[in-house]
Amino acid sequence: MDKQRDFVLRTIEERGIKFVRLWFTDVVGTLKSVAIAPAEVEGAFNEGLGFDGSAIEGLTRSFEADVLAHPDPTTFQILPWRGEVDPTARMFCDITTPDGQPAVADPRNVLKRTLAKAADRGFTFYTHPEVEFYLLKSSKYGKNGPVPVDSAGYFDNVPGGTAHDFRRRSVRMLEDLGISVEFSHHEAGPGQNEIDLRYADALTTADNIMTFRTVVKEVAIEQGVYATFMPKPMSEHPGSGMHTHMSLFEGDANAFYEAGAQYQLSKIGRQFIAGLLKHAPEITAVTNQFVNSYKRLWGGDEAPSFVCWGHNNRSALVRVPLYKPNKGQSARVEYRAIDSAANPYLAYSLMLAAGLKGIEEGYELPPEAEDNVWSLSDTERRALGYTQLPASLDHAIQFMEESELVAETLGEQVFNYVLLNKRQEWRDYRSQVTPFELEKNLEML
Predict the structure, then answer these.
(1) Domain count, the chain
(2) 181: which DSSP letter?
(3) What does the DSSP assignment read for 362-402?
(4) In a domain, 130, yes or no
(5) Is residue 358 part of a domain?
(6) What is the mean pLDDT of residues 60-68?
(7) Which of 29, 272, 322, 368 would be a feasible disulfide site paired with 355, CB 3.0-4.6 Å?
(8) Domain containing 53: what range?
(9) Per residue in 228-250, pLDDT tens?
(10) pTM strictly above 0.90
C-alpha cells in the first residue's frame, strides 16, 4: 500500500494534477465527491478527510455524524474528460468512524464484508455487467415523453449516428481510466445502448460501474445529448437492465465448472443458482430499487418477471449461458433482474450472499425452464412452480422486511435506511394522480 501511495504522490507531482476528487457512494447509490488540493493528499492517506456524514443519504445517524474518508490509492486515476486545463484525478474512499472502525453504512464496506465472508470459504467473486442506458436529445420531455437520439434497433450500425460516436468516445475514455470494455452496441430501443465491462472482482466492478455512469453522463454532455440510467424511461420501449454474469473462483479454478456435468455446471454452481432463486424476491428492493424499476420488470421485452432458471433461456431470471468449448474458466451464471440504476455495492453484496447461502445450506436446484416463460398461462406457471418476482416496490419492500439474509448482509443501519427510503418513495408515488388516470377517468366518471 505504501508503494501505491508513493506512486500516487509522485504521479500527482509529475503530471501537474491540480485537484484530486475523493469519491464515495451513499446508500441509494449516488456518487459523492469532494475535491482536495494535491498538498492535502498525503494527510488524507495518513489520517483521512473528516466530514459531516449526517448530510449524506443514510450514511450516519445524526448523533454519530463525524466520519472520515480514506482514499484507496489503488483506485487512483486521472479523469480524461478534464483535459489539460486543471488536470484532475480521483480516488474511491472507504468511510470510517473517528476511532478507525469501518462506517457500518458505507456501501463499499458492505460489499467488502460480504467478499470477506466468501474469502473465508475460499472463494473470490467475479462479476461482469452488461450496462444498458438511453441517449435522449434532452433531459426535458413533452407530452409524448422523452425524445431518443435515433430510431435504430438491436446491433444496428448507424453511420455518422450520435450513438456511434458516443460509444467510441465513451469506450476510449473508460480504457483511459483503466476500465476494460468487452462489447458496445446499439440496443433494441431507439437511442438505447449497451456497454459491457470486462470481468473483474466484484469490488473493482462496483467501483467501475460508479465511474462508468459518470463517464457516460460526461460524454453525453460533451456531445449535446442526455444519458439516463432510468430503468424504464418510455413505456413503449424496452427498459434498461444490467444483466450481471457471476462466477466463484477457488484460487485459479472456476468453482462453477465441472467437466462432464450437465452444462458443465458444478454442484457449487447449481447450489449458487438455487440460492439466487430462493432469495430473489427478498433482494429485489435493492437490485430494483425504484418505483420505475417495476415498469421494466413487468413490461415484457426480455425483462424477467418469474423466478426460474434456464440454459440460454432469455425469459428466465437466472441464465446459464453457452460458453466456448474447452474453456471451463468461462463457466458462469447470469442474473437478469438487476437494473442499471441499482447501487452496485449493495446489489452485488446481496446476490453473492444469496448464492453463498445456497452453497452453505445445500439448496436443491429446481428443474430448469425450457419454455418461454412469458408465453405460459398463469396456471401453467403455477403448475411448474414459477413464483413471481415482486410486482411493485411496495411488494418488494414487504419481502425485504421479512428477510434475515438481507438484514444480516446489509447490517442493521443500512437495512433500516433502505426500508425507510423506499417506503417514503412508495408513499410519494402512491399519492400521485397520474396522466393515465386523468385520461381514463376524468371525463368518463
Answers:
(1) 2
(2) E
(3) TPPPPPPP-S-GGGS-HHHHHHHT-EEPPSSHHHHHHHHHT
(4) yes
(5) yes
(6) 64
(7) 272
(8) 1-99
(9) 999 999 989 999 999 999 999 99
(10) yes
